[in-house]
Write a structure and sequence with these properties.
about 220 residues; mainly alpha
């Protein structure tokens, strides 16, 4: 085999290998393109189905929300009607309770007023009785004080007479007279005064019983 033939053979093999690779590459590209096209179609079909499902779900949700909203509005209307009915009933009961409470309070205030008037009358009577008793006690105290003052005045007068008699007696003793000092018995002598018989006899007896005066000595 010559070199030329060998080179020709190798060139032919290289060409065949290149053609095979190009054919394989074309097949791969065709398969990839077909797969991509099929994927796009599948994706578009899935997205359409998904959109239809979502639309159906949204329509269902909107329908259910509308139904729930309608029921809620009906329930609110029922609550409002019931509230108005209950409010009217409660208003009537409250007004009745207020009227009863007002009557009870008026009765209670009337009883308190009667009790207060009765208590005021009793207190006024008690004050009047206490004032009368206090006046009586004050009058009695003033009478006792007047008696005490009158007795004190009499005692002072009596004490003044006694003191005057004592002063006269002391004066007589200082003068060295032979007369006996006055006594209470002489002051209150029987009828006839100081010159009566009984007074003269008592004075003579007193002079007889009195000691004799001492004689003065001639010595200086």
């Amino acid at each position: 085999m010559t070199l030329t033939s060998e080179m020709t053979r190798l060139a032919a093999e290289f060409e065949d290998g290149l053609q095979d690779r190009l054919a394989q590459i074309a097949g791969i590209q065709a398969r990839v393109g077909q797969e991509l096209e099929d994927g796009q179609v599948a994706r578009a079909r899935a997205m359409a189905e998904h959109s239809e499902t979502i639309d159906a779900d949204l329509k269902g949700l909107f329908s259910e929300a509308a139904i729930i909203r309608g029921r809620a509005e009906d329930l609110i209307d029922d609550f409002a009607a019931q509230r108005e009915k209950n409010a009217a009933t409660m208003r009537a009961k409250l007004e009745s309770h207020v009227a009863d409470l007002q009557v009870s309070v008026e009765k209670l205030l009337g009883s308190y007023s009667s009790a207060r008037d009765s208590m005021s009358a009793r207190e006024a009577a008690a004050r009047q009785a206490y004032l009368k008793e206090l006046q009586a006690r004050v009058q009695a105290l003033l009478a006792d004080a007047a008696k005490f003052v009158d007795g004190l005045r009499k005692d002072r007068e009596r004490a003044g007479r006694v003191w005057a008699r004592h002063a006269r007696n002391m004066s007589k003793l200082r003068r060295g007279g032979d007369r006996k000092p006055e006594s209470a018995e002489a002051k209150s002598a029987p009828t006839g005064g100081a010159n009566g018989p009984a007074a003269k006899k008592k004075g003579a007896d007193d002079r007889a019983a009195a000691p004799a005066p001492k004689k003065k000595s001639g010595k200086v």
